[in-house]
Specification:
By secondary structure, this protein is mostly beta strands. It contains four helices and 31 strands. The strands form twelve sheets. The chain has a four-stranded antiparallel sheet with strand order 8-9-11-12, with no helix packed on it. The longest helix is centred in the last third of the chain and has 25 residues. This is Sushi domain-containing protein.
Length: 343
């Protein structure tokens, strides 16, 4: 019996459906044969034309053409094509597309525009104001696509407004000078003056400033207006160098000195203070110390020291002073007796 016809069985027919799909997928992912190129790598600034994008494998010498992505302009000095090389790789891409430039925003009055690179597509700029000015608007802006393929800024130029202070406080028996018509901006100042017969206690000027670069505030409290009178200074055993008057007003100054035989303890220059007293305080005139040496015929030397207390303290302890004078008279009598005895 002759053998029957040989049945040709496909290898794929022997495989299960799932295995067939796996094998087919593996065959599709195999690298192209030498001399052919696969799909080129994606470029950040350009994309392949539709004709080139539809192909999966490219023979040696084939080219693909690119068009610039939105936000980029064509650079005419470089070719927008890549070529499949004999080793199965693509030629290197040149910078045939360059970023579009955003328009100049202009000058920020009383502020600055800050950027670290050229103002082109994708770049960011920031805004800052000078000291004493507040930024009104966005602090940053990005160069982006704003209409079709046109680029522009995501935020407009902000404004730098001067920080303002509220009107300064009013004071009793005085007023401030307003040269700003009610608008007190950063750095401006007002001057306070007092009514007649009143003295200004405190700073004459206050200034509009800020601590948080947002809210304005005055740099200190306003002064006060007071009637200040200091009586003419009375210095026992001393006198005024300047002319004597019945009274002195705030900050008026006098110079004092002591009479002969007295020295000044304290400041010679004093001023009429806000509390109607002399500052830093009244000095005192104290007596100069006098020394007397009595020599006897022997080698013994007896020295007595006489010191008169200041008149202000002496007046408070007159009885004590008289007692000391009596003791001194007794000592002198004893010394005199010794001297005459030895002669």
């Amino acid at each position: 019996m002759s053998p029957g016809p040989r049945r040709v069985i496909s290898a794929l027919g022997l495989l299960r459906p799932s295995s067939s799909l796996l094998l087919l997928s593996s065959l599709m992912n195999l690298p192209p044969a030498l001399g052919t190129c696969g799909i080129p790598e994606r470029l950040p600034f350009a994309e392949m034309t539709k004709e080139s994008a539809d192909q999966k494998n490219f023979p040696e010498g084939a080219t693909v053409t690119y068009t610039c992505r939105p936000g980029y302009n064509r650079n005419r000095y470089f070719s927008p094509t890549l070529t499949c090389l004999p080793d199965g790789t693509w030629s290197k891409a040149t910078a045939f597309c360059e970023k579009k430039r955003c328009p100049n925003l202009g000058e920020l009055v009383n502020g600055h525009i800050n950027f670290n690179e050229d103002i082109v597509f994708g770049s960011t700029i920031s805004f800052s104001c000078d000291e004493g000015f507040l930024l009104i608007g966005q602090s940053e802006s990005i160069c982006e696509i704003v209409h079709e393929n046109q680029v522009g800024w995501s935020a407009p130029l902000p404004e730098c407004q001067a920080i303002r202070c509220l009107p300064p406080p009013d004071i009793a028996n005085g007023q401030y000078t307003d040269n700003f018509q009610g608008f007190f901006t950063y750095g401006s100042s007002v001057r306070y003056t007092c009514d007649k017969t009143y003295s200004l206690i405190g700073e004459e000027f206050i200034y509009c400033t800020t601590k948080n670069m947002k809210d304005g505030e005055w740099n200190g409290p306003p002064p006060k207006c007071k009637v200040v009178r200091c009586n003419s200074p009375d210095l026992p055993n001393g006198h005024l160098i300047s002319g004597r008057r019945p009274f002195y007003t705030y900050k008026e100054t006098v110079i004092l000195e002591c009479d002969s035989g007295f020295y000044l303890e304290g400041e010679e220059k004093i001023s009429c203070g806000a509390d109607n007293i002399w500052v830093p305080g009244m000095p005192q005139c104290k007596a100069v110390v006098q020394s007397t040496t009595i020599r006897t015929s022997t080698t013994t030397t007896i020295t007595t020291t006489t010191k008169t207390t200041s008149s202000s303290s002496a007046s408070g302890s007159s009885s004590s002073a008289r007692g000391k004078e009596n003791q001194l008279d007794t000592i002198i009598s004893v010394i005199t007796l010794i001297i005459f005895t030895q002669i």
